[in-house]
């Protein structure tokens, strides 16, 4: 009976500790398990104030909120960093503009400390989505949006750092495709939607 009471008391103590844990606030220092390389647009800046939050109540911070103070002493949100899988490493980064609107989100999907998907926002709307599905964190494919609609895709199919494939979209469908055959960054061959559907290609255009 005593043993049962002791175990019950211990569980109650742990439960209460989890409920009463408050977010810790410290000076502007990176989390202990920071990514291996800085994420472009997410660099730490002098004078930042960081607040740490333990949202899953495991005793370790999993969200970091970075702010600065304006001339009136009001907090201005700069960035958020998140550890979504609880492994102690950041896998999501968010950047905010001077008006407090979200401007950039970066996801590390394979948890290697490098960006895999990057979303760019303007005035609250998604304008660009980049995919870096290799192992170097470099973007290989980008999608562009206007008023929430996909208008263009660009790809680097051979990994040389230059776009060599373009898709232009209208009304949710591919309108035409451009291909760079000689690596000069210019379209050598255009394919229209009708030609693609019919298995034919148009003449080269430059």
TrEMBL record:
SUPFAM superfamilies: EF-hand, Integrin alpha N-terminal domain
Entry annotated with the keyword Signal: yes
Signal peptide bounds: 1-22
Residue ranges, annotated region (Disordered): 24-43
Transmembrane segments: none
PROSITE patterns, alphabetized: PROKAR_LIPOPROTEIN (PS51257)
Name the record gives this protein: Lipoprotein
Organism in which the protein naturally occurs: Anaeromyxobacter oryzae
């Amino acid at each position: 009976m005593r043993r049962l009471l002791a175990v019950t008391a211990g569980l109650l103590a742990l439960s209460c500790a989890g409920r009463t844990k408050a977010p810790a606030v410290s000076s502007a220092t990176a989390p202990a398990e920071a990514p291996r390389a800085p994420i472009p647009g997410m660099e730490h800046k002098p004078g930042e104030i960081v607040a740490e939050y333990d949202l899953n109540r495991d005793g370790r911070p999993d969200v970091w909120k970075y702010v600065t103070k304006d001339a009136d002493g009001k907090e201005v949100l700069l960035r958020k960093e998140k550890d979504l899988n609880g492994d102690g490493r950041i896998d999501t980064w968010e950047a905010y503009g001077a008006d407090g609107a979200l401007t950039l989100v970066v996801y590390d999907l394979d948890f290697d400390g490098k960006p895999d998907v990057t979303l760019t926002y303007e005035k609250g709307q998604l304008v660009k989505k980049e995919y870096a599905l290799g192992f170097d964190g470099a973007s290989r494919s980008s999608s562009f949006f206007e008023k929430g609609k996909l208008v263009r895709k660009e790809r680097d199919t051979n990994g040389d750092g230059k776009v060599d494939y373009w898709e232009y979209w209208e009304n949710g469908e591919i309108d035409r495709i451009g291909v760079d055959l000689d690596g000069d960054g210019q379209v050598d061959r255009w394919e229209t939607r009708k030609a693609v559907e019919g298995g034919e290609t148009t003449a080269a255009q430059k």
